[in-house]
C-alpha cells in the first residue's frame, strides 16, 4: 500500500482477516494472534485478578506499578466480538509500565451473545467500583481515566458521555486509540478503505451489526452520534492513516475542540488499524510509548 510504513508493510501478507461471520472462530484466531506477541516485562508490576460485583459480575485484571497513584479503566479491542483479559495482557502491562498508572483491564461481555448495552454496562460498573473503592485499591479518586483501543476506545468514550449525563464518577481523562465511534460508516475512510490490513469497511460494518443487534444506535453505543460534547474530560485521540475509523476519529476530535474540550490528536502516518501490535516496527514502539507518556502526564504525576 502506497506510503505505508515499510516496517509495517512487510507484515501485511502475514496478517489474517477477522471473520466476524463466525464469532467463535474469530475469537480463537484473535487469541492466537494476540498471545503470540512478545511477553511484556511484568517484574515491576503487582498483578491481581478480581471480580467486580455487578449483574453479572465483571472480571478485571489490575496492574499496579510501584508507587502508582493514578488509574485507568482500560477496555480491549476486538470489535466488541473478540478479546479478553488474556489477549489484552501484553498491552495492559506495557501501558502500566510506560505510564506508572494502575491499569484496570476489563473483561466485558462480548457480542453477539451480549449486544449493547452489555459491554458498556460492564465497563461502567467497573468505573463505579473503582471510584467507590479507590482507597482500597490505592488509587487517587481524582485521578481516574478511561481508555481503550478500537472497540474499547468507543466504550471509553461512551462511558465518559454516560458519566457526564448521569453525574456519575468523575473521569480525569480519556485515552482513545483508534476508537470505534460511528456506526453510520459515512466518512471517506469508512467508505473507501475496503482492502486495508486487518480491518476493512466490511469487517467494521459486521462488528457494528453484532454489537448493536436489534437495538438502534444511541450516543452511548456510537459516541459520534452525540449532539452535545461539552463538559467531557480532556482527550488524547490517536488515529491510524489506513484505518476505516480514521476520519470519524479526526472529526470527533474536532467536534470536541469546538465544544471546549481539551484535545491532543495524533494521526499516525503510515500505520493501519491495530498495527501498534507489531512491536518490531519503530513506529509501533513510539505509539505505545506515547500512550504511556500521555497517561502519565494526565493522571500519574
SSE order and pairing:
Blueprint: H1 6-9, H2 23-35, E1 45-52, E2 58-65, E3 71-75, H3 85-99, E4 102-107, H4 118-132, H5 134-137, E5 144-149, H6 151-166, E6 173-177, H7 188-192, H8 201-212, E7 235-242, H9 246-258, E8 263-272, H10 282-300
Parallel strand pairs: 3-4, 3-5, 5-6, 6-7, 7-8
Antiparallel strand pairs: 1-2, 2-4
Helix pairs in contact: 2-3, 3-10, 4-6
Question: How would you summarize this macromolecular structure in one to three sentences?
Answer:
This protein has helices at 6-9, 23-35, 85-99, 118-132, 134-137, 151-166, 188-192, 201-212, 246-258, 282-300; strands at 45-52, 58-65, 71-75, 102-107, 144-149, 173-177, 235-242, 263-272. By secondary structure, it is of the alpha/beta class.
Describe this structure as you would to a colleague.
α4 (118-132) packs across α6. This protein is an alpha/beta fold and 301 residues long. It has one domain: Rossmann fold. It has an eight-stranded mixed β-sheet with strand order 1-2-4-3-5-6-7-8, sandwiched between helices. It contains ten helices and eight strands. β7 (235-242), α9 and β8 form a beta-alpha-beta unit.
Amino acid at each position: 500500500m502506497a506510503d505505508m510504513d515499510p516496517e509495517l508493510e512487510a507484515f501485511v501478507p502475514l496478517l489474517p482477516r477477522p471473520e466476524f461471520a463466525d464469532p467463535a472462530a474469530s475469537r480463537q484466531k484473535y487469541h492466537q494472534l494476540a498471545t503470540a506477541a512478545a511477553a511484556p516485562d511484568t517484574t515491576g508490576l503487582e498483578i491481581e485478578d478480581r471480580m467486580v460485583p455487578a449483574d453479572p459480575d465483571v472480571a478485571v485484571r489490575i496492574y499496579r506499578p510501584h508507587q502508582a497513584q493514578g488509574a485507568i479503566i482500560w477496555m480491549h479491542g476486538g470489535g466488541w466480538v473478540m478479546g479478553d483479559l488474556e489477549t489484552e495482557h501484553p498491552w495492559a502491562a506495557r501501558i502500566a509500565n510506560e505510564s506508572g498508572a494502575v491499569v484496570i483491564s476489563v473483561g466485558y461481555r462480548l457480542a453477539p451473545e451480549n449486544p449493547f448495552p452489555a459491554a458498556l454496562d460492564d465497563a461502567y460498573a467497573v468505573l463505579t467500583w473503582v471510584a467507590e473503592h479507590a482507597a482500597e485499591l490505592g488509587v487517587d479518586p481524582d485521578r481516574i481515566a478511561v481508555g481503550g483501543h478500537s472497540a474499547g476506545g468507543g466504550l471509553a468514550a461512551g462511558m465518559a458521555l454516560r458519566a457526564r449525563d448521569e453525574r456519575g464518577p468523575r473521569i480525569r481523562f480519556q485515552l482513545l486509540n483508534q476508537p470505534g465511534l460511528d456506526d453510520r460508516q459515512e466518512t471517506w475512510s469508512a467508505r473507501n478503505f475496503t482492502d486495508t490490513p486487518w480491518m476493512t469497511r466490511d469487517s467494521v460494518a459486521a462488528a457494528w451489526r453484532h454489537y448493536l443487534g436489534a437495538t438502534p444506535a444511541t450516543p452511548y453505543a456510537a459516541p459520534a452520534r452525540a449532539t452535545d460534547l461539552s463538559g467531557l474530560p480532556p482527550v488524547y485521540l490517536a488515529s491510524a492513516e489506513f484505518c476505516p475509523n480514521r476520519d470519524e476519529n479526526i472529526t470527533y476530535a474536532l467536534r470536541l475542540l469546538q465544544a471546549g474540550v481539551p484535545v491532543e490528536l495524533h494521526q499516525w502516518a503510515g500505520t493501519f488499524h491495530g498495527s501498534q501490535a507489531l512491536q518490531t516496527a519503530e513506529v509501533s514502539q513510539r505509539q505505545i510509548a506515547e500512550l504511556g507518556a500521555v497517561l502519565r502526564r494526565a493522571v500519574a504525576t
